[in-house]
Amino acid sequence: MRSAVPAPVALDILEGPHGVGLSVLLQAIPRDVGMADADALVVADGSPANQAWHLLCAQHGVNWVITGRILARKRPQLLPVSDRVVRYAVGRPTAFWLALHTALCEDDAALHRQLLELRQVAAVQERVSAPRVCDAAVWIGHRAEGHACPR
After folding, report:
1. Threshold 0.85, pTM exceeds
2. For residues 66 and 44, what is the distance between their CA atoms, to the nearest angstrom?
3. DSSP structural state of residue 58
4. What's the distance, CA 100 to chain centroid?
5. Using the 8-state DSSP alphabet, how is residue 139 labeled?
6. How far apart are CA 47 and CA 41, in angstroms?
7. What is the pLDDT of residues 1-53, one digit of tens each?
8. Do residues 55 and 46 touch, judged by C-beta distance below 8 A?
9. Cα–Cα distance measured from residue 32 to residue 129, given in angstroms and rounded to the nearest whole number
10. Comparing C-alpha atoms, which of 151, 133, 14 is closest to residue 81?
C-alpha cells in the first residue's frame, strides 16, 4: 500500500505558506554534512530537521514514511529514509534519527566505516549516503530472514 501526498497538500507545500515555512527550515539544515559528521543537535528534538518533520506530519497530515522520504531527498547525506520494516528491525526507537546518529558515531564511527565499505563492495555510487546504505541493508536483511512486522 503506497501513500501519496494529497494534491492540495502538495500545492500548499510547493506554493503556499507552509511551503515557505518548510523552505526556511530546509535552509537551516546542513546540506553537505553526513549524519556521522553532524552534531547530534542537527537531528535532535527542536532542530530545524525535526521541525520540518512535524510541519509535514502534524500540520499537513503527510504519512510519516512519505515525510521521511521527502526530507531524505532534500538532505540525502544527513536524513535517512525509514519505514515500519526498518523501525521494527532496529527496535522501534522513539528518536530514530538520534538513535542512528549515535550508532554511526560510537566506537570511533565503526558502523559508519562498515557501511561505506559495504557501499564500495556493492559497487553503489558514492553519492548514496551511509544512512541510506544502512536502511537498505536492514530492510533487505530483515525481510530475507523472514521476519514479519506487526501493523
Report:
1. no
2. 20
3. I
4. 9
5. H
6. 7
7. 456 777 888 888 888 887 898 999 999 999 989 999 999 999 999 999 999 99
8. no
9. 11
10. 133
